[in-house]
Amino acid sequence: MLASISKNLHLTISTIIIIVVASAYGICPSRILPYLFDFTVSTTDLKQVFRAIMGLYLAMAGLWMYGIFYPNYWKTATISNVCFMGGLAFGRLIALVVDGVPSIYFSVGVILEMLLACWGLYNLKRFV
Asked: What is the largest CA-CA distance in the chain?
């Protein structure tokens, strides 16, 4: 039981975080994003972009939840989680070098993404 909780905890935490972020990006981007960040979402095309990101994030969260509830898919879910979180962290590290230090939201984001990617790699070594 404890091994199962430990094995799935990184996927559970990732799922919760990504659902919250997806909701912030897509439910009402023209109201929520200007409040959080220093830009406005005023065109239909930009709203479409953020809602597409929301859809992608929710799809990934769905895969991770599937891996939690169906152990045969845990490895697939974990690999996708490592790629997703690692890819976000890699992009943010490039932006850090090229563009400078971001807001607190993105600074915390890169740390969480790196931690979750590393945790997923650790779990792959430990449980596969």
From this structure: 49
Cβ atoms < 10 Å from Cβ of 78: 24
Tell me the pLDDT of the chain (128 aa) as tens digits: 677 788 999 999 999 999 999 999 999 999 999 988 888 999 999 999 999 999 999 999 999 999 999 999 999 999 999 999 999 999 999 999 999 999 998 999 999 999 999 999 999 999 99
- Tell me the C-alpha distance between 9 and 13, whole Å: 6
Within 13 A of 21's CA, how many CA atoms are on the CB side?
21
Residue whose pair of structure tokens reads 């095309």 in the numeric block: 45
0.70 exceeded by pTM: yes
**Residue keyed to tokens 């740390």:** 111
